[in-house]
From TrEMBL:
<comment type="function">
    <text>Catalyzes the decarboxylation of four acetate groups of uroporphyrinogen-III to yield coproporphyrinogen-III.</text>
</comment>
<feature type="binding site">
    <location>
        <begin position="24"/>
        <end position="28"/>
    </location>
    <ligand>
        <name>substrate</name>
    </ligand>
</feature>
<keyword id="KW-0963">Cytoplasm</keyword>
<feature type="domain" description="Uroporphyrinogen decarboxylase (URO-D)">
    <location>
        <begin position="19"/>
        <end position="28"/>
    </location>
</feature>
<feature type="binding site">
    <location>
        <position position="206"/>
    </location>
    <ligand>
        <name>substrate</name>
    </ligand>
</feature>
<comment type="pathway">
    <text>Porphyrin-containing compound metabolism; protoporphyrin-IX biosynthesis; coproporphyrinogen-III from 5-aminolevulinate: step 4/4.</text>
</comment>
<dbReference type="GO" id="GO:0004853">
    <property type="term" value="F:uroporphyrinogen decarboxylase activity"/>
</dbReference>
<comment type="subunit">
    <text>Homodimer.</text>
</comment>
<keyword id="KW-0456">Lyase</keyword>
<dbReference type="Pfam" id="PF01208">
    <property type="entry name" value="URO-D"/>
</dbReference>
<keyword id="KW-0627">Porphyrin biosynthesis</keyword>
<dbReference type="InterPro" id="IPR006361">
    <property type="entry name" value="Uroporphyrinogen_deCO2ase_HemE"/>
</dbReference>
<keyword id="KW-0210">Decarboxylase</keyword>
<feature type="binding site">
    <location>
        <position position="317"/>
    </location>
    <ligand>
        <name>substrate</name>
    </ligand>
</feature>
<dbReference type="InterPro" id="IPR000257">
    <property type="entry name" value="Uroporphyrinogen_deCOase"/>
</dbReference>
<feature type="binding site">
    <location>
        <position position="74"/>
    </location>
    <ligand>
        <name>substrate</name>
    </ligand>
</feature>
<protein>
    <recommendedName>
        <fullName>Uroporphyrinogen decarboxylase</fullName>
        <ecNumber>4.1.1.37</ecNumber>
    </recommendedName>
</protein>
Amino acid sequence: MKNDLYLRAARGEATERTPVWLMRQAGRILPEYRALRARLSGFKELVETPELAAEVTIQPIDALDVDAAIIFSDILVVPDAMGLPYEMVEARGPLFPTVIKSAADVDRLRIADPEESLGYVLEALRITKRALNGRVPLIGFAGAPWTILAYMVEGHGSKTFSKARGMLYKEPALAHRLLDKITATTIAYLQAQVAAGAQVVQVFDSWAGILPPAHYAEFSTRYIGQICAALAPLVPVTVFAKGAWWAVEDFAALPCRTIGLDWTENPAAVRRVVGDKTLQGNLDPCALYGTRDQVKAATQAMLRQFAGGPHIANLGHGVYPDTDPDSVRVFVDTVKEWRG
């Protein structure tokens, strides 16, 4: 590869400098993305059109000069493939017209065949891999089973996800049945992504932090562990569980190679727990609202905290859509110049 820094760091190997990319780098911060999106009927058309998804995936490589590409898609393609379709409502977010309420609802779900039901993502990966031609590695991803369950039961985004969390108390056996189906689909899907060209996969547990630790261990870490065990022999696996700082010790025992940190976590403390695993993160996305000098200083301060082990620079969550692309470039350039 022309630039394999990210891939080597994801394997835990030594690198000449810290590689850098951003979660949600392919998206609304880029004017070229907004121009393309304006021509389409909506978000789902973009996700489900492989040539366009590939184009958007590559845009930040050209515009921001980051060290990795992540396929443009959405975590909710998994429940959609299982038979629970979603809509993406402008200025509101995802909406499931039908939700999971009963054992009969779970029984109706299928364990999706990725080529049959998610072939558009796999084709986007194949197109992207050819177009990148070794410029940078390509990341595949999926949502963690708990986060997917949260949307399937709640039906939309929520501050509390009280219906989904309530199921864990009232009907834990039903929750496990649903999680088993989601996990089986996710494993097959990520394995198919690897076959289509993904060189690293990341598992996003966006709603990890709303669960108490005991529930997180039972209803999330357990299933993330199954995914890691299935994928780790194929490619390096990254786990990013936003807000679940207490889970780091459990993640240390999983066969994931990289652990993503949000901006509330202390990298040095995590390093003491997980040893030589690669850490990813963790600049506060709001730091990019600062002046050029402030962004540079915040980035350097972040980098100092990750000394002592392999690190992939990133934000502590996805880049916010009103972020100035010039601030993102300062972040990227500062990481590339760092030799601390």
